[in-house]
Each structure stands twice: as C-alpha cells, then as structure tokens.
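Marked as duplicate of an earlier ticket. Keeping the data here for the record.
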Amino acid sequence: MYIYGIHPVLSFLKHKRNLVKKVLCNQELYKRFISKEVKDAVILDNKEISKITNIYEHQGVVAEITHFPYVDFEIYSNKVTKICILDHIEDPGNVGAIIRNALAFKIELIVIPKYRACEITASAIKASAGAAAIVPVALVTNINNAIRYLKEKEFWIYGFESSGENNLSEIIFDYKTAIVLGSEGKGIHKLTKNLCDYLVKIESEKEVSSLNVASASAIAFYKLYIQFYVA
C-alpha cells in the first residue's frame, strides 16, 4: 500500500515506523525533511515517482507501507471513553478529515464498518494530514453490534442528525460517550438511529439545511472536548 504527501509520510515514519517498507522522494524533500527520519530513501524525480506508484498528486514523496494498522474493536474500546462511529461514510476525504478532527479534540477511537463504506485508503490518510497514523481505527463487520457492545459497557450513544430532537448546545455528554455520524446524504440508518440514546442536531441558520459530515464532526468533537478537557 502506498501513502503519499509529506505530512502522512512523516507521520508514519514517526509513529508507525515498523510498517514503512521504503520511501520514494525527490531530492528537495529528502534534504528538507526525509533525511532527518530515514537515510535510505530512494531519490527520484516526481515523474519517476508517479510512474512507479501510479500516484500523481504525491507532492514529491511516497511511502510503501505493509498495511494499515487497524486495532481490535473489543480490546481497544475497553481502554477508552471517547469514541466516534462512522455509519457507512463513503468519501475518503470526509473520513480523513474526521480522523484529523478526532486527533485535534481527543477522540480516542474511530470505528468504521467493513462493508459499504470507505476503509482507510491512501486518499483518506492524505486527507487526515497524517492523523491516521496516530488515532486508532477499528474495522467492524456490523456497527449495530458494535453499538450494542458499547451500551453493555455503559457507553451512551449520541447520533448526530439534522432532524434530531436534542440541541447540541443543551447536551451534556456522559463520561463514556460514543458519537455516531451518518453517511453523506442518507444520514444515520434507521436501525442504527434506534440504538442511539440521543439524536442530536447542530443548531444553525435556516438557510443551511445540514453541514458536511466532516464539519459536523469538528463541532461535535469540540463540544465534547471543552466539556471534559478545558477548565
């Protein structure tokens, strides 16, 4: 698997070095950044990098990694108290941006479904600006079963929907919180929605019917963050 872009590559070299097989970069980026982390990078011009990797938006640096390091959902969910569950979000840009927001606001685990959704691809890693190497991500077969498991572990589930009956400004999150974010256009699926303890809407001007899911995640995560981490 190839990942690309200076921030993702540097992040994997710093946080997941054991997964990096090789680095391909141009001379300028090697001197400025890569040489500080790895001495045996393959120095090529940008066209040669594109020809080898079939990636054209690489910004002059690509790394080959063995695999993306998903964590075990049940093991990891017992170690954390702030989780985000993505309900079949398909756009890698949104998935990556959500992971970046998660790092900014101390969301400790991202949960994504194995089917009919975007897994962690090179594009998602690029959109995360390297955060995907830091924030744990679990891949599950069925998110509804994952939610049921979390409820057994005393998590409270907050689904974010534009039609939610609870205003975000009035929500007080539980210490063990899981935030559910729905897919683009479709929102949260009905069965998943029924498993939520609260359906929450983000108040906004009437001219805006709904926010992009990545934007909504930043607002939701920030609200949770200031409740628990800002004095």
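See parent ticket for discussion. Residues 73-229 form a domain with the Alpha/beta knot fold (CATH 3.40.1280.10).
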